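Q&A log
Question type: sequence-to-structure
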Amino acid sequence: MRALSGRVQELRRGEWRLEANLAPTVKSGRLFYPRKRKTVQASGARAADALLRDWLRELEQHVCTDPATLTFAGMASQWLKWVDENRRPATHHFYQGQLVLRSSSVL
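Response status: OK
Response body:
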């Protein structure tokens, strides 16, 4: 996944809009480039840029996914990745087997 990008825009004195460009997804057979926006209070452009960098880092860390396009397979994949990083290998293997066994008729 490529790094997220974004920009800041001053709305009025001390109020800034942060905009994050998320990873492209396919929607109805076409590429869709989703964005997230957030309004913050900052004393100036440098402070707003710092808030943007922190927000982009947070979005990347949480594997930002648009809930409207999230599938069961995508959610299960993200969850299994978390289990792999935070639980014992035997637990990961068990959960992975259960997902394949229980969801093979759904997928």
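Response note: The radius of gyration is 18 Å.
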